[in-house]
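Q: Make up one entry.
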Amino acid sequence: MGYLDNSSITVDAVLTKKGRDILKNGGSLNISSFTLSDTGVDYTLWNPSHPSGSAFYGEAIENLPMLEASVHAEYNSRNRLMTMNQNTVALPALKLGNLDSANGTVKTFNEGDEASGTINVEMIGYTSTQNLGYIVIIQDPTIVSTNATQIAGGNLSGTSRQFLQSEAIPQAREYTFSGTSFTITPIQQDKTNRQTNIYIVDRETGAYNSFQVVNNITKNSRSLLSGGGAG
């Protein structure tokens, strides 16, 4: 990581591994969109008591060193910039339902439980005008699967919408869905208490939430005979 001198307006761009690979194979980047982020900005430095007046309230923020462009998208752009009505008093938030408790952050699958679970997603404080849907990021897809549509490319690529542990980046996968819910299904494991994190991000606002999955399923599910046959 490095810092850029903030004494002048600077645009610093570097190619990710994916971008370099495209150019290496004779392709073109054809950049058609971009995402802005305020990651690295400390808003607690806003000073409405500055002796020089309102024009200097944000002076300390404007003088913060800018983070140098990073090729590791998985660590950047967690907080997306967006435009909202000036009367807005709270940011949009995602509320998750059908977890282990009303305000829980864990979904547990035990032997004998339901074969899958439906996770309800509710946007609070914002009404979508574009209906772009949601992104689901499963940190370890060998522990749980989903009916959400896997995004082309397999593993995480491009600008991730959530910070991930370094060891999780190579295997994490992104999916997408529209509506108010998606389904997750535990995958049989060789031992109990296998855990992974799942992140849900609204495409339009960048609002996000997460929960943990605990998978205790170590046996294949078996169908029970509903009745005896004729002898």
About this structure: The two ends are 75 Å apart (CA to CA). The helical segments are 17-24, 59-62. The chain has a mean pLDDT of 80.
